[in-house]
TrEMBL record:
PANTHER family, per the entry: MONOOXYGENASE-LIKE (PTHR47469), OS06G0597600 PROTEIN (PTHR47469:SF2)
Protein name: FAD-binding domain-containing protein
Gene3D superfamilies per the UniProt record, alphabetical: 3.30.9.60, FAD/NAD(P)-binding domain
Recorded coiled-coil stretches: none
Pfam families in the record: FAD_binding-like, FAD_binding_3
Ranges for domain 2,6-dihydroxypyridine 3-monooxygenase substrate binding: 199-328
């Protein structure tokens, strides 16, 4: 065990030595990478039965905190994001109706994931060089196929129970627990059983098309641009992201579309789209490769009828579409049992994707967690992470509902979007968000 690089605070805070992290997606890996580099011993428990999580091949807008995280903790030293220079708005005929200069950085989920695994447990991949351990690092332990079911406190320790990859019950003892287990978090359900995750009345259809398969018209609409289309019940945004193995060279990138479209609760169309190839009604996601032909035809027809031609082309050319139901969930606080158990990322608050802030939230929470564990300032950790979660979750609901369920002038949607682009450090936190 390395000695954590922390100072015991004057009020007697004793930094933990061994931290269990539930969830091995981006939030869990941000936690593992940062804490390891500060000398803490960590164990990640991930329920997925395979060593590597399934790549959904989709884009992530890399905001300030995501970039700040990689800047501070990435030892692989490869670029993580591509840039666009402009925001462009199309009408249904595909003509540009508004544009503004605005730099934006976009990455892909898989590139972030493999960079974090390379940094945490030295996982080899085609994405980046593996960064070896350095003196002072804490011990690492990545366990997949481990589904956490319960935990209990015993004095200064927390005992975490899980089913291992063979379905056998096991437990692990730690002195600090991080719930990074996503918007349907088990840790949150145990601590706050009344918090619900609710369907918002619309879905997002997502997919990617290799840049070289796109028409010239589509390339000029989407390369170096962040391109939007608004219509009643529809928002489509399409942009360029890194390609296979994180390739960023021209011709090797992907065009990524994110198409919000309304499917009312209980409607036949929602049932069609959310029933997979095996006839199973999925609750919230249809992963890549599992959509039925019938659902895909229905979606493509909707695209042909309602989207600008460049965006409809992306839908037609996508080979692995996937669907996510848009949901809302937020936890009243993220710290429990005298600050020994915390929730971060989507487990704290599942934002609507319009906020382009989910990955940034996970990165920010971890940057704040490091401060907490180094200084013992528990109040600041809770205040800053929960106030941010409250504000952005609320704004996501507000702009999402305006976009999908109201018919407003384009300028209102542009203003909403620009509000979401205010850097975190410049945000005003109204009294109702404050701790
Ligand atoms: C496989 C996957 C692919 C994704 N792809 C994209 C994408 O392409 N684009 C995008 O914008 N966002 C994507 N996301 C969402 C994005 O990663 C998150 O919104 C954001 O990064 C914050 O993530 P999180 O780690 O807090 O939660 P999540 O990403 O939801 O991760 C939670 C993790 O916890 C694990 N878990 C849940 N319950 C338990 C349990 N009881 N025991 C052990 N482990 C548990 C889950 O398997 C999951 O790996 C993806 C998420 C996942 C899991």
């Amino acid at each position: 065990m390395a000695t954590p690089q922390v100072n015991a605070s004057s009020d007697g805070f004793r930094p933990p030595q061994h931290i269990v992290i539930v969830g091995g997606s981006l939030g869990g890996l941000f936690t593992g990478v940062a804490l390891k580099q500060h000398g803490f011993d960590t164990t990640i428990l991930e329920r997925n039965p395979n060593n590597l999580l399934e790549n959904q091949g989709a884009g992530i807008v890399a905001g300030g905190d995501t970039l700040a995280f990689f800047d501070r903790y990435d030892r692989c030293k490869r670029p993580v994001a591509v840039e666009s220079q402009k925001r462009v708005y199309l009408d249904q005929s595909g003509q540009v109706v508004h544009e503004e200069e605005m730099k934006q950085t976009m990455t892909s989920w898989d590139l972030c994931y493999y960079m974090l695994r390379a940094n945490y447990d030295h996982q080899e991949s085609g994405y980046c060089q593996v960064a070896g351990p350095q003196p002072g690092d804490g011990k690492i332990d990545y366990r997949y196929g481990c589904t956490v079911t319960d935990f209990k406190r015993e004095g200064e320790h927390v005992i975490v129970s899980y089913n291992n990859i063979n379905g056998e019950k096991e437990s692990i003892t730690c002195d600090f627990l991080v719930g990074a287990d996503g918007p349907s978090s088990t840790i949150r359900k145990i601590l706050c059983p009344n918090v619900e995750r609710k369907y918002a009345g619309y879905c997002v259809i997502r997919g990617t098309v290799p840049e070289q398969e796109a028409s010239e018209q589509a390339k000029s609409a989407f390369i170096q641009r962040f391109t939007f289309f608004h219509a009643p019940g529809i928002l489509n945004l399409t942009y360029t992201i890194p390609g296979i193995n994180g390739a960023m060279e021209e011709g090797k990138r992907l065009l990524n579309f994110v198409w919000y479209t309304n499917f009312p609760e209980g409607s036949e169309e929602l049932e069609t789209v959310m029933t997979d190839m095996e006839g199973k009604r999925r609750r919230l996601t249809i992963p890549p490769g599992t959509m039925t032909d019938e659902a895909w035809e229905m979606v493509k027809t909707r695209g042909r009828d309602r989207l600008p031609p460049q965006m409809s082309e992306m839908v037609e050319k996508t080979k692995q579409p996937f669907v996510q139901c848009i949901t809302d969930v937020i936890t009243p606080t993220n710290s429990f049992m005298d600050g020994k158990i915390v929730l971060i990322g989507d487990a704290l608050a599942g934002f609507r994707p319009h906020t382009v802030a989910s990955t940034g939230q996970a990165a920010f929470d971890v940057l704040m967690l490091v401060e907490y564990l180094k200084s013992g300032d528990h109040h600041q950790f809770v205040k800053r992470t929960v106030e941010f979660a409250r504000l952005i979750q609320h704004r996501g609901v507000y702009i999402g509902n305006r976009g999908q369920f109201e018919s407003l002038p384009l300028k209102d949607y542009i203003e909403d979007r620009n509000m979401m682009s205010i850097p975190r450090q410049d945000l005003d936190f109204p009294p109702w968000t404050q701790i």
